[in-house]
Amino acid sequence: MTDLNTLTIAEARDALRKGEVTSRDLTEACLAAIEGAGALNAFVHHTPDLARAQARAADARLKAGDAPAMCGIPLGIKDLFCTKGVPSQAASRILQGFKPEYESTVTQNLFDAGAVMLGKLNMDEFAMGSSNETSCYGNAVNPWRRGDDAAPLTPGGSSGGSAAAVAADLCLAATGTDTGGSIRQPAAFTGITGIKPTYGRCSRWGIVAFASSLDQAGPMTRTVRDAAIMLGAMSGHDPRDSTSADLPVPDFEAMLSGDIRGKVIGIPREYRMDGMPAEIETLWADGAQMLRDAGAEIRDISLPHTKYALPAYYVIAPAEASSNLARYDGVRYGHRAKLAQGDGITEMYEKTRAEGFGHEVQRRVMVGTYVLSAGFYDAYYNRARKVRTLIKRDFEEVFAAGVDAILTPATPSAAFGLGAMTDADPVQMYLNDVFTVTVNLAGLPGIALPAGLDRQGLPLGLQLIGRPWEEGDLLNTAYALEGAAGFVAKPAKWW
Amino acid sequence: MSIDLETAARVASLARIRVDKDALPALAQEFNTILGFIEQLNEVDVEGVAPMTSVTPMRLRRRPDVVTDGNRQAEILSNAPDAREGFFVVPKVVE
Fold first, then answer.
1. How far is CA A24 from CA A16, A44, A81, A408, A436, in A?
2. CB count, 10 Å around CB of B92?
């Protein structure tokens, strides 16, 4: 048998059910892989004892014949998820030492399904970043390199640790979260699959909040089938999240027929950006051709407000972040600054937040504070919310005209070097999310999947955007594209 | 719209983040870059458009107004940087 840590969820599930392997075996293989992968800095809190206990319980369940699909599957969990008794600090110094007394709904759902947690994964601080360089744990590193060039590359962000861990076979799959592209961009940079479901599909309860109207959790996996299996286990209504949808969760895996004959796939002209590498143009055109060959109709469409999505996002997301992050005040949890003689409560807040928040988080909190402040609320925040309405309307009109899914590139480039953006202004980094952020603003499901390699041997991804609540149909289209693209490349092991 | 040092200092104070005087010029510069990017929104005709309040056309669910949780003092205080006698402790706020 191949190395157990390289299996897909579907392969592992089938082998577990046949009794060919145990969860204990899978878990030990992953723990050993993690042990040898310190150079990737993907896992930042290790939970081997918990993993072994969960694996034992999963093996007992499998033996008893009571085994949901995720039973016994070893996972990595993004540090943004609160996990009971296990450090959960959103890669921020301000949550240093925080051990939640409760479990996030998504991780509880996974554990109820029998999944095994190997540890917590690196990420950008409070999920604010596109390169995993704002983490208090240091950079996560992409297992992919440019040919023989040893220069370390970003795994993307904010779910950079999740992407690196799945791509490097440290776990079978991982959880991610996506506010503007934080699942899909790192998935594209590391040659894996990641889906952000419809807003409300996964409960946000117990996930450290960044921008509550945009945040969604989703799976990061090696295949579309695995994404379907794991998304099903993560999803479901939760009375503790008032925006969680009370809708049945379909059997997404059962919807993977690969038959997309007659489906209409939209190609939005506004996603053709100036200065986009020719390789990404070609990849996009090839992807459209593959879907056409599979029997879909390819239709040129227009989403006229696309250009305004990023500026609207950089009002709305910081505004919500400034409100959400007001809770980090040094009183109830996490870091509190050492105070000087005579310091009062205001000094405590100000020093605690200056020491606890990194530079990018401080910047976004302050931008959010500014756009919400008296005199600017209408000019910035309300205007951005109106533009958001128009962005959503663009999609609604296209779907009403019969389009089933929209094909776009996932990112405007392949993975870039760690440190390459250090001297760029912040807006340059924000441009990473240009193709993904519209989907969050409109609350839609979007999936990134690997579709090819660039000249330097780095993976490139395509994105499919679906109708609200139709993740099953979207996954099926992705499944057809995955089969046609036949992406099987793996990073050469150097770590 | 350009942010001067005084505005940058005021925003930092509203956000309760201590920023050293030396760091204010760079901060103001970053704000101006980001706000310059955001200014593009002024090109959009938003006349008669309602600001989005909920991305999914769903009413927030209601539930009976009853206590559903509680009696967790020890758990709630367990992560506090300073807790004594069942309370969070902060610097003196009243003279």
1. 10, 22, 24, 40, 38
2. 7
d(CA A131, CA A362): 17
How far apart, in whole angstroms, are the C-alpha atoms of residue A415 and residue A120? 23
Chain B partners within 8 Å of A128 (Cβ)? none
Which residues of chain B lie closer than 8 angstroms to A430, CB-CB? 37
Q: How far apart are CA A427 and CA A453, in angstroms?
A: 27
**How big is the CA angle at A129 (ends A124 and A135), to the nearest 5 degrees?**
25
Closest to A371 measured CA to CA, from A321, A326, A315: A315
Taking only Cα atoms into account, the Rg of chain A, rounded to an integer number of angstroms, comes to 21
Tokens of A60: 């007992």
Interatomic CA distance for residues A279 and A457, integer angstroms: 12
Interior CA angle at A453 toward A452 and A456, to 5°?
Answer: 170
pLDDT band at A1 (very low <50, low <70, confident <90, very high): low
Work out the angle between the directed axes of helices A345-356 and A359-372 (0-180°, nearest 10).
130
Which tokens belong to A36? Answer: 């040898």
Q: List CB contacts of A114: < 8 A, sequence separation 6 or more.
A: A23, A54, A57, A58, A61, A62, A67, A68, A70, A71, A72, A73
- pLDDT score recorded for residue A274: 83
* Tens of pLDDT, residues A107-151: 999 999 999 999 999 999 999 999 999 999 999 999 999 998 999
Taking an 8 Å cut-off on Cβ atoms, the answer to whether A369 and B14 are in contact is: yes
Backbone φ, ψ for residue B9 (5° rounding): -65, -40
Closest-CA distance of chain A to residue B10, Å: 9
Establish if B52 touches chain A: CB-CB under 8 angstroms. yes
Bridge partners (DSSP) of residue A193 are A221
Subunit contact A315:B61, Cβ cutoff 8 A: no
List Cβ neighbours of A203 (8 Å cut-off, separation of 6 or more). A104, A105, A106, A109, A217, A236, A237, A238, A240, A241, A244
Count how many residues are written for chain B: 95
Give chain A's mean pLDDT: 97
**DSSP letter at A301?**
E
Round to whole Å and give the CA distance between A462 and A259.
Answer: 19
Nearest by CB to A200, which of B18, B56, B63? B56
Q: Which of B18, B53, B76 to mutate to test the interface with A (most CBs of A within 10 A)?
A: B18
**Judging by beta carbons within 10 Å of its beta carbon (0-12, 13-18, 19+), is residue B13 exposed, middle or buried?**
middle
Amino acid at B32: N
pLDDT in tens, A13-24: 999 999 999 999
Contact B16/A at CB under 8 A: yes
- A372: tokens are 């919400």
A110 and A70 in contact (C-beta within 8 Å)? Answer: yes
Relative to beta strand A116-121, strand A264-268 is unpaired
What ipTM was estimated for this complex?
Answer: 0.96
Interface residue B66 vs chain A (CB under 8 A)? no
3-state secondary structure of A151: coil
Q: What is the per-residue pLDDT across A283-342, written as a single tens digit (0 to 9) for each?
A: 999 999 999 999 999 999 999 999 999 999 999 999 999 999 999 999 999 999 999 999
Residue that has been written with the tokens 């109709």 in this structure: A297
